[in-house]
């Protein structure tokens, strides 16, 4: 069964269509990448799956599991946010509340979804370990962790809350190349080992080629091409896709090894 | 830097100001009414002579009626007429203070922001010192040592008000001065005063103008407070703070003598604040 | 952080020095002869000469300034012309009462202003927002002396619900005398368990504190609103929403703390402003604080007393600003790391 299933999605601001997606499915253990330049509507598509697009007219059908996002009550919508599909944002530190320890954010989020006490502590630590971070990080403030750590913590949040899909919005574009590799490696491992699904938004085709199973190419709000990653990269049918692929100097073949656990010394904050 | 970029930079802030914000419009309309009342006071006041030293002992302390909308005061003067004339005093003070402190602040601020270095340090430290006094406090101290009069009020408030504009202008001017078009003008050999006049000043002005309209209310309130304490306008000038002070012992028995001048201060300060707030909301959008 | 602290301290010392010089300059602007003011209009030439010597008025200005600074640091703030007491003693006596009044006002302002700011931000652009914005603009536009007179007339003189003037019912000094520790009546009454004086003081506090609270409450409401709207548009708020938190939770449980930072730094400014607004309010309610002392000094053109009040309030302001900068480290961990 698809964890996320989008049909005939049209998002408008006024008369302008900012995103139009006829079909988009994400199944367990699968990584689907939305690719395109900024302004192509990929982030809007991503956010609309959580009902987080404000000030726009959203039409069509968006299913997250058995919940119809566009008709669900606000309370039901808040229940599935985080616990079924969780967001990982572009700028890792700005996405974390500067006045709050990571552990506080984690325990509040868990409590929001009904997990409290010892159970919550266990889930938090388990989630943090699963992304190869030391649980000590829960005692830190956002400015005391590196970008890569913050990004992995965001994934840990999703795991602790029991989300089966991670919605990653340019999760590595604000990071160094080596740190990017770490984050991608973590996502790949979780996909392979736990069947975590990933809906990835990116303009970085080199990154996408290392992780995506399927690719959806968007331009000016519309889908221009979609298919399996291997197929799209090998035989792009749309001229725009060919242009995008040609712009990548070389698509890396080797994938860096996942980082070792307890690598906290790697970044002692900015 | 190309010419089009320069003109857009120079024009956008003011053009955005012209855009309509409902709050700003409401404030402007309200303030317009006050300004009209001030300008037309001699013609629209039912008893123009009562704006000054006239006395009608037989008509003292009459409650509001068709003949005297706001009643009459201790010496029988029409309170409505005096409130209208009071608008002249208050607005005169506000305009004078804002003009004097605005010009002084902008000049010093532009010098500090554009020149940088020791000039900036000296001006900013002096500014800090003046800003350590709440406006009313320093005006009070000054007004005490000068002779009580409307001029004293203007001088005393202006002295405390300029540092705000100096600081604001300095920070804006400093950021304008680092923009590309100023650099290129400097490279082309345009003399510094011309750069300041042509580029730095126009770009620094908008935030100051918004601040000026926000501050009108503060000036009105401070001026009224000084007059209320007996340090400003004195008889027979119509001044709202003074009218409150002279009538305060009558509040329980003859409420109108104090209520209407106080309301006039409130409405005027409010209209400035609404206008300024609307402009600020517009500008920060 | 230490280097940042030292720089801030250095700045504060510089500003205080400037404040002293400026106060001195203003007081030397006085038309007429301070010696005449002290010795009285009927003084003989000898008495005048004595007064001139006593105040060092024959010395050159820099020497006078030096003497002034030396006296200030030595604790001699001059002698009040109208109480004939050392200004420093007068100020020490009046200050706790002002602190009590302004403290109460600021508590009211925060308790009223922050929730209003939250409500406005929560319903941005709708009716609650508009009414909060308009009422806070009204609150900062109201002339305090007039509001003081109006509330006193209606609720004290008119309806008799609250006492008209004073700090507490003076007859209580006989029946249940107050032991002084902090000189702040409400606090002393509380820690010594003197309930009659405590309740009387609180009843006397209500009206003047409400009047003084109007301005800071309006400012705090506007600032809280603006800061919350700003904060709730940031990336972290989007993540919090994506974690399942609703708008109200995002505002109160997440955005409020970082948003309080600018509100807090405003409090120092508002504190000094409120002390000065107290000048107008204390006189109306006969509250025995700095304001009434200042008003009395103004009426008798008592320059040493006015200089003392001016200096005290300006220094208070500088200190309050410093304190807020330090406090900000508590609220915002980023500042601590600086």
Automatic annotation (TrEMBL), chain B:
It is a multi-pass membrane protein. GO terms for cellular component: plasma membrane. Keywords: Cell membrane, Membrane, Transmembrane, Transmembrane helix, Transport. The keyword Electron transport does not apply. It comes from the Bacteria. InterPro entries: BP-dependent_transpt_permease, MetI-like, MetI-like_sf, OppC_N. The keyword Transport applies. One of its GO terms (biological process) is transmembrane transport. The chain crosses the membrane at residues 23-45, 91-117, 129-162, 255-275. It is found in: Cell membrane. Residues 87-276 form the ABC transmembrane type-1 domain. CDD domains: TM_PBP2 (cd06261). Belongs to the binding-protein-dependent transport system permease family. This is Cytochrome c550. It comes from Microbispora bryophytorum.
From TrEMBL, chain C:
Gene3D superfamilies: MetI-like. Pfam families: BPD_transp_1, BPD_transp_1_N. Its main location: membrane. One of its GO terms (molecular function) is dipeptide transmembrane transporter activity. Keywords: Cell membrane, Membrane, Transmembrane, Transmembrane helix, Transport. The chain crosses the membrane at residues 12-30, 101-123, 144-164, 195-215, 263-285, 305-327. It is a multi-pass membrane protein. It is found in: Cell membrane. This is Peptide ABC transporter permease. Residues 95-328 form the ABC transmembrane type-1 domain. Belongs to the binding-protein-dependent transport system permease family. One of its GO terms (cellular component) is plasma membrane.
């Amino acid at each position: 069964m698809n964890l996320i299933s989008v049909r005939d999605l049209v998002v408008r601001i006024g008369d302008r269509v900012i995103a139009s997606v006829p079909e988009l499915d994400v199944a367990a253990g699968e990584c689907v990448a939305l690719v395109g330049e900024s302004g192509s509507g990929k982030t809007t598509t991503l956010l609309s799956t959580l009902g987080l697009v404000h000030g726009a007219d959203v039409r069509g059908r968006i299913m997250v599991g058995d919940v119809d996002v566009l008709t669900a009550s606000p309370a039901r919508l808040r229940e599935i946010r985080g616990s079924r599909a969780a967001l990982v944002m572009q700028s890792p530190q700005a996405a974390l509340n500067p006045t709050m320890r990571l552990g506080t954010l984690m325990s509040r989020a868990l409590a929001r979804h009904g997990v409290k006490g010892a159970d919550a502590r266990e889930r938090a630590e388990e989630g943090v370990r699963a992304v190869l971070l030391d649980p000590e990080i829960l005692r830190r403030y956002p400015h005391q962790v590196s970008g890569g750590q913050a990004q992995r913590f965001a994934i840990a949040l999703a795991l602790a809350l029991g989300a089966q899909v991670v919605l990653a919005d340019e999760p590595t574009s604000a990071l160094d190349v080596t740190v990017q590799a770490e984050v991608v490696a973590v996502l790949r491992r979780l996909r392979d080992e736990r069947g975590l699904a990933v809906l990835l938004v990116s303009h970085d085709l080199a990154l996408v080629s290392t992780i995506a199973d399927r690719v959806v190419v968007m331009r000016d709000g519309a889908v221009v091409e979609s298919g399996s990653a291997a197929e799209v990269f090998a035989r792009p049918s749309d001229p725009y896709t060919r242009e995008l692929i040609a712009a990548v100097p070389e698509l890396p073949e080797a994938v860096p090894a996942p980082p070792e656990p307890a690598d906290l010394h790697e970044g002692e904050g900015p | 830097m190309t010419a089009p970029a320069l003109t857009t930079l120079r024009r956008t802030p003011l053009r955005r100001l012209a855009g309509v914000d409902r709050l700003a419009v409401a404030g402007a309309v309200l303030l317009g009414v006050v300004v009209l009342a001030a300008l037309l006071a001699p013609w629209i006041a039912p008893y123009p002579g009562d704006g000054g030293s006239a006395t009608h002992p037989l008509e003292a302390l009459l409650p509001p009626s068709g003949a005297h909308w706001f009643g009459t005061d201790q010496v029988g003067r029409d309170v409505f007429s005096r409130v209208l004339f009071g608008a002249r005093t208050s607005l005169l003070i506000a305009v004078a203070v804002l003009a004097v402190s605005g010009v002084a602040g902008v000049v010093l601020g532009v010098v500090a922001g554009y020149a940088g270095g020791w000039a900036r340090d000296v001006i900013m430290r002096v500014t800090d010192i003046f800003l350590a006094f709440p406006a009313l406090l320093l005006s009070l101290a000054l007004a005490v040592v000068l002779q009580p009069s409307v001029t004293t009020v203007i001088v005393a408030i202006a002295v405390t008000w300029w540092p705000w504009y100096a600081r604001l202008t300095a920070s804006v001017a400093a950021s304008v001065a680092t923009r590309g078009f100023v650099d290129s003008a400097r490279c082309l050999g345009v003399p510094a005063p011309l750069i300041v006049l042509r580029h730095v000043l126009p770009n620094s002005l908008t935030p100051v103008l918004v601040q000026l309209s926000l501050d009108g209310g503060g000036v009105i309130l401070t001026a009224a407070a000084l007059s209320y304490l007996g340090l400003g306008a004195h008889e027979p000038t119509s001044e709202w703070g003074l009218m409150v002070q002279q009538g305060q012992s009558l509040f329980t028995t003859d409420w109108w003598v104090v209520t209407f001048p106080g309301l006039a201060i409130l409405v005027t300060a409010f209209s400035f604040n609404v206008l300024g707030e609307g402009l600020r909301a517009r500008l920060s959008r | 952080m230490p280097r940042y602290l030292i720089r801030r301290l250095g700045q504060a010392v510089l500003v205080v020095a400037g404040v002293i010089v400026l106060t001195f300059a203003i007081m030397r602007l006085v038309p007429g002869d301070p010696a005449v003011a002290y010795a009285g209009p009927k003084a003989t030439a000898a008495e005048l000469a004595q007064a001139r010597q006593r105040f060092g008025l024959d010395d050159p200005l820099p020497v006078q300034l030096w003497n002034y600074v030396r006296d200030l640091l030595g604790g001699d703030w001059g002698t009040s012309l109208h109480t004939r007491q050392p200004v420093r003693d007068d100020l020490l006596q009046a200050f706790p009462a002002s602190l009590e009044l302004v403290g109460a006002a600021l508590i009211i302002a925060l308790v009223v202003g922050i929730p209003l700011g939250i409500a406005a931000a929560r319903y941005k652009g709708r009716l609650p927002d508009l009414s909060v914005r308009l009422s806070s603009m009204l609150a900062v536009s109201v002339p305090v002396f007039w509001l003081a007179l109006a509330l006193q007339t209606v609720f004290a003189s008119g309806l008799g619900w609250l006492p008209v003037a004073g700090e507490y019912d003076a007859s209580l000094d006989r029946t249940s005398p107050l032991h002084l520790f902090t000189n702040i009546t409400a606090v002393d009454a509380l820690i010594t368990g003197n309930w009659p004086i405590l309740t009387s003081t609180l009843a006397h506090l209500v009206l003047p504190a409400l009047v003084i609270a109007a301005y800071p409450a309006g400012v705090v409401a506007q600032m809280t609103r603006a800061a919350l709207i700003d904060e709730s548009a940031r990336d972290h708020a989007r993540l919090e929403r994506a974690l399942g938190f609703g708008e109200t939770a995002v505002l109160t449980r997440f955005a409020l703390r970082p948003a309080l930072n600018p509100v807090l730094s405003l409090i120092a400014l508002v504190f000094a402003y409120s002390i000065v607004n107290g000048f107008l309010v204390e006189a109306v309610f006969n509250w025995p604080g700095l304001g009434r002392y200042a008003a009395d000094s103004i009426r008798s053109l008592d320059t040493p007393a006015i200089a003392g009040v001016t200096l005290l309030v300006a220094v208070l302001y500088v200190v309050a600003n410093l304190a807020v900068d330090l406090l900000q480290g508590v609220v915002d961990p980023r500042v601590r790391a600086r």
